[in-house]
Sequence to fold (537 residues):
Amino acid sequence: MPGLTRRALIAGAPFVPIAVAAPTAAAAVAAARSSSAAPTAPLLAKPLPKTGEPLPVVGLGSWITFNVGTDAAARAGCAAVLKAFFEGGGRVVDSSPMYGSSQAVIGEALARIAAANGGRQPPVYAADKVWISPGARGPTQIEQSRAAWRIGRFDLLQVHNLLAWEEHLPQLLAMKSDGRVRHVGITTSEGRRHREIERLLDREPGIDVVQVSYNIVDRDVEQRILPLAAERKVGVLANRPFRQGDLLRELQQRPLPGWAAELGCTSWAEAILKFIVSHPAVTCAIPATTRVDHVRQNLRAARPPWPDETLRRRMAADVARLV
Amino acid sequence: MDAWWTYRPSDVVLYSAETWWRLVANANAELWPAHLVAVAVGVAAIVASLAGRGGVRRAAPLAVAAFALAWLFVAWRFFVERFSTINWAAPAIGAVFAVEAVLLAAWALAHRDARLRVRSGGERAGLVLLVLGVVAYPVLALAEGRSWRSAEAFGIAPDPTALATVGLLLVALDAPDGRDARARRWAAIGWRALLWPIPLAWLAAAVTLRLTMR
Fold:
């Protein structure tokens, strides 16, 4: 393929894999035993800028997909998705009290997985949110969320869509000081309140993570928020990588462009995720799914090769012509 | 919800279409055979509407009171007990359904001698809606390619209950009750203002949800 040198494929200077996270030995054995052909190549992990903790670049969201109520069969399906996610080397799982029963479904799934592994907890990076007003009700909601997840403490707590952030952010930072949460973040979605996000990134040094909508067509954050996050050493979680499935539904009708094969992509989902996570400022993308095969497909995007800036521009231009 | 004007309906639907229909199917399985009682009530209202010679005395308050019980049943058994497992707003919606139940019961008490009748164009339209809600709505499941297990039934699921109620109100609301014509007209207007907003609002929401769920 003309123009696609190995250097171009493995991305340029700003994008340097700091660590490569291999699945745990148990997960690798489980994957090998799995009837599906789960790849065992290590996942790319990027560090959270302030702490250096490496996180696999493909996580798992839970908006809608894990909100299945008390339906036992559906809950079992969600547990299978989480199991495949961990077996594939994933860690970051994101939820919110806004997402209905998702937190409780995640909690039950985590407990099931631990029980099947002799009580050993899966290596989840538990990312949740506080979403309530007034802010005084935040601590109660956070405790209810923690109980729903059935975990000791969250790794990351975020102010969901900046609701009552003036009250929640100081509370979360105090929790971080006390060791009751490891990292603190803020979120928005679909381009809302970007100015406020920028102001907070600029003036709040305690923020560790910002979660924004970012994908191959929704690239507004590339202008200011992503560079600012990099400058302020704030990690970035990318939500709505597929526009809640709409982007994939639109693209599925189209054949994959030539660069997809060079990137090792056999699906549009992998191609889009590789675009997202190859941005130097993005730490992790969090696609949501109800399917085990889609989880495995998504995790393949966390394995090399990745596009450099020149190829990223070409990918974005090609997709813009298609949608 | 901050910046609420920027949200689309799809942004606030918390569940997938598959989850919704599984909820309906599970509710049907758990609440059966309450469907038989509910449909019997609805069919009785239809039959009473078609009775000739001015209609069956007291059919209107009896039918409306029975529908009030249906609204209460849906409020509790569907919204509070089941829909709340996937939607944190469900208890509030259930409370609104309970309010409609109280309003229907109040109308029934205030119109004890009213009859159901189908004479005018509006009343005929009401009969059509009544039949659609009670008899035809469950068939939608098959028409939409879903299993009959997820069929929505009057008195069990909110959509056909609201639809059939709008129909019944068209048939029952203007029933003669002994007062002079002008007083009846104003009373009917007043009762319409009380009884119609909730079922009409739910039907509008239901259509939006149906079009928005993925």
Q: What stands out?
A: The interface with chain B takes residues 64-65, 67-71, 73-74, 98-101, 161-163, 190, 192-193, 244-245, 290 of chain A (CB under 8 Å). The first strand of chain A starts at residue 19 and ends at 21. The CA atoms of residues 15 and 280 of chain A lie 5 Å apart. Confidence is low (pLDDT under 50) at residues 1-38 of chain A.
